[in-house]
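Entry 14. Ran structure prediction on the chain below.
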Amino acid sequence: MADRLNIKSLLAKHGLRPKRSWSQNFLVDLGVLEAIALAAELDEEETVVELGAGLGALTYFLARDAKRVVAVDRDRDMIAVLKSEFAGNERVEILEANAAKLDWPVLVEGLGTSPVVVGNLPYHMATPIIFHLLGAGSLLDRWLVMVQREMAVRMTAQPGGRDFGVLSVMLQMEADVENVLDVPPDAFLPAPRVHSRVVRFRPLGRTRHKLRDRALFNRMVKGLFAKRRKTLRNGFRQAFGEIDFAMLDAVMERAEIDPGLRVERLSLEELARLANELAQ
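Output, structure tokens:
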């Protein structure tokens, strides 16, 4: 078997070309496709929802390992290709839908099981799709997505580093996040100008640390990390304007957090403690 899929022939067969406006870069490296399928850790009884199925290259490998694959794409041209290429394959179901707006409760109820989610996400839509997946919570078993490498670095960043921020906090508060595989530009056709990375998420089904008020926690995190290099005390002042510093100092004392710490050095547990004291 060749090392690369002949995507050009498949596109020509259906009279198509990659759409730059849709950020279409098709995986053609068979070794990478195989590695992603293996990293999904599928068994023959599991159902997979594949986001951004495209021409079906990864769909083939997922259907080989899983009981059922729901291949999702919002491009009608891609849907037509998928229906043609997987006609008669009882393991593959084609769904025309926007991954960022999928009604997960309805979809999961129809499937009758918590699916594994796998997807090569369009880079310009990766953030809303990721947070939409996060919002599905325990409805989903686990997910494996490919994103731009720089975004993956921020997802898995730890406190104290320059990449640790709102994205790191929000995701790690609700899921275990781990890097799986780096994918070079030449694994795609056409080759993007950036490197990619596959990241695996295992939802916790709860927040990692108990929160009294999730909305307040989110607001606090977004406000403070907009001033990430400031000390915590100054970060609160610049992020929220008018503030009762006597009250704030008392809150930080109860939370046992040094007000002179830089925002970016706070751990998830410390951020949760601080938000919980504020909530009171």
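The mean pLDDT is 92. Will compare against last week's run tomorrow.
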